[in-house]
Design brief:
The structure holds two protein chains of two kinds. Chain A is an all-alpha fold. Helices cover 76% and strands 0% of the residues of chain A. In chain A, helix 3 crosses helix 9 and helix 6 packs antiparallel against helix 9. Chain A is globular. By secondary structure, chain B is mainly α. Chain B is built from 14 helices and two strands; from the N terminus they run H-H-E-E-H-H-H-H-H-H-H-H-H-H-H-H. Chain B is globular and about 75 Å long. The chains are: A mainly alpha, B mainly alpha. Chains A and B meet through helix 1, helix 3, helix 4, helix 5 and helix 6 of A and helix 2, helix 4, helix 5, helix 6 and helix 7 of B.
């Protein structure tokens, strides 16, 4: 962006701008600061001193007790379910996107339209039938119960993003490969998959964050703590720590930490991925 | 030349390629189509089928009742109340989130240096799961231990301290506030991207003509962002029709249905009252409402696709 074209605002305007901007920053950060500070208070502290007072001493005991009572099982389940789902989403949607973007066959356009229409389906309508199906095939209350619904419901938007991306890959590359005798499978593997890197990254990031935070399917399709994912840790601990505010907020901090750490390392990519995914979806 | 001769003339490897070429679309599409059929299309149809049953979900004792559930739904005040809440949520999401987001986008667009850090921090709420936000704000709204009432009392305004989530008159508003808090940065970034695509010479020309900042905004920038604003409004409305997690965690749809939404009502009907048939009717109706509104919305915004 050219800085010459944009004149610097006057000092008064500048201070108004910054006051308002910092005001919203306070609105954003105060609730999060409340969570962090309260989670480090002793339970006695929360009764004795006002809520906005800083902890009189840092009390890690709530974190210790949360970490010792099954937190890592939820974390492991989340990593497994989200990791496997995202891997399958990328493979399956890249294959479909390639066929829809580049291969000629009879029902290409209507099929693409139908898949894209899948983006507006509110997932709640599938909840009861999927619950019954999961029970019928014996996957109920296992982490595997989540993989099918997670992958399938992420496909429409992922296929849409990747097909859009692959349409922009120059045809000359493909034609050159065809002259060399490459079939569609080689062309997909050697040309389209590697050149779709940024599109794949968007799809992976968007779905990983959405599924990492997914609640209702995980809540309905699993029941025992040993098989549940992180968002359910919050739910399950809520029963256990109903009267212990600092412990509950320690659970909030711990469950939210993985994404915040990821964000610290790749803000640009995460913001871009989340925005692109939501705009298409 | 007859076809047999042609086939024979093509070397074996080529021929294999050709049949691979014909089968390729099917092979590439098979996994996606199978998954979509099993977890999206089948459940969708199954939900409509279940909506014609009376069934508690246990065993084989389901009874086919035809459209009886749909007739009950049409007369079910609770469902219409829930749909009304969804629409209110959508309306207030648009009216509250979009202006704040636009104001912040304009601020950041002008702030220059330092705005990157602000942008990064503003985005934080979007990383939290709805369950986490539900738990956080349940504590913040807590009538006895929460910071909001504590602050009001400390400021000498105890009359304003309320049981935010436990009072029928405030529950939906309190939940809406949290939704706005989380989603404002999303629309802000959307608008920022729109503003960045604003041609600088246009602005310069307007300034030389003596136009004030306000005039430039209302007369030039806002019309330029029209498409983006429509997209944002549609996303906010459709998002509001599907809300579940946050409300379920914070109020469960209560007190006395004051913050009930279609999705929480559906959930309660199926998993608390064990009316699988009627719950599926609610789910199917929700599908019809969302699809209808989304189809209309997409038509309105199609011409204004925006890129980030």
């Amino acid at each position: 962006m050219s800085s010459i074209a944009k004149q610097q605002p006057k000092p008064l305007t500048r201070s108004v701008i910054w006051t308002l901007a910092l005001g919203w920053l306070a609105v954003t950060l105060l609730p999060l600061a409340f969570v962090l500070f309260t989670s480090l208070k002793s339970q006695q502290d929360t009764f004795d001193s006002p809520v906005w007072a800083l902890p009189t001493h840092i009390d890690w005991s709530h974190y210790a007790s949360v970490l010792q009572s099954g937190f890592f099982t939820y974390l492991r389940n989340s990593l497994f379910v989200v990791g496997l789902s995202v891997l399958l989403i990328v493979i399956v949607s890249a294959m479909a996107a390639y066929a829809l973007a580049r291969l000629k066959f009879r029902f290409n356009k209507p099929l693409f339209a139908l898949i894209v229409a899948g983006m507006i389906v509110p997932l709640h309508i599938t909840l009861v039938p999927i619950y019954l199906m999961t029970k019928a095939i014996g996957l109920y209350d296992t982490p595997f119960a989540l993989i099918g619904p997670y992958v399938a419901t992420s496909l429409p938007v992922s296929i849409f993003i990747l097909a859009e991306f692959m349409r922009q890959i120059p045809r000359e590359l493909e034609e050159a490969a065809e002259l060399d005798g490459c079939g569609p499978f080689t062309i997909f593997r050697r040309i389209f998959l590697p050149l779709s890197g940024p599109g794949v990254a968007t799809v992976a990031i968007y779905n990983a964050i959405g599924l990492w935070n997914e609640f209702i399917f995980a809540y309905v399709l699993t029941s025992s703590p040993g098989n549940r994912t992180l968002p359910l840790a919050l739910w399950d601990f809520q029963g256990e720590y109903s009267s212990n505010i600092p412990a509950m907020l320690a659970v909030v901090t711990l469950t939210s930490l993985p994404l915040i750490v990821a964000y610290a390392f790749g803000q640009e990519r995460i913001v871009k991925g989340m925005m692109a995914g939501s705009l298409k979806g | 030349m007859n076809t047999h001769a042609t086939v024979a003339a093509v070397p074996l490897a080529r021929r294999r390629h050709r049949s691979a070429r014909q089968l390729a679309p099917a092979i590439f599409l098979a996994p996606a189509v199978a998954l979509l059929a099993m977890f999206l299309v089948y459940p969708l149809l199954q939900s409509f089928r279940l909506s014609l049953l009376e069934w508690n979900g246990l065993g084989e004792n389901s009874v086919f009742v035809g459209l009886a559930n749909w007739v009950s739904l049409a007369k079910d005040g609770l469902f219409w109340h829930a749909l009304g809440n969804n629409l209110l949520l959508g309306l207030f999401s648009v009216l509250i989130q979009l202006p704040i987001a636009m104001a912040l986008a304009l601020l950041l667009d002008k702030a220059g240096r330092g705005s990157r850090t602000l942008k990064i921090l503003y985005f934080l709420p979007l990383l939290f799961s709805s369950v986490a936000l539900g738990v956080i704000f349940k504590n913040i709204y807590d009538p006895n231990f929460g910071p909001i009432n504590a602050a009001l009392n400390a400021l000498g305004l105890p009359a304003l301290a309320k049981d935010w989530l436990g009072d029928r008159s405030y529950a939906l508003a309190a939940v809406t506030a949290v939704i706005c808090w989380q989603n404002v940065p999303f629309y802000m970034i959307l608008f920022l991207a729109g503003l960045a695509s604003f041609p600088p010479d246009l602005r310069e020309a307007a300034t030389l003509d003596g136009a004030s900042d306000a005039t430039i905004f209302w007369k030039i920038k806002l019309p330029h962002l029209q498409g983006t604003v429509r997209t944002a409004a549609m996303l906010a409305v459709i998002g509001s029709l599907r809300y579940f997690d946050l409300i379920y965690v914070m109020t469960g749809g209560g007190p006395e249905g004051a913050s009930e939404l279609m999705a929480t009502y559906m959930y309660r009907t199926v998993f608390s009252s064990f009316q699988l048939g009627y719950g599926s009717t609610v789910a199917s109706a929700m599908f019809l409402v969302v699809t209808l509104i989304a189809a209309v919305g997409m038509r309105l915004t199609k011409r204004f696709e925006t890129e980030v």
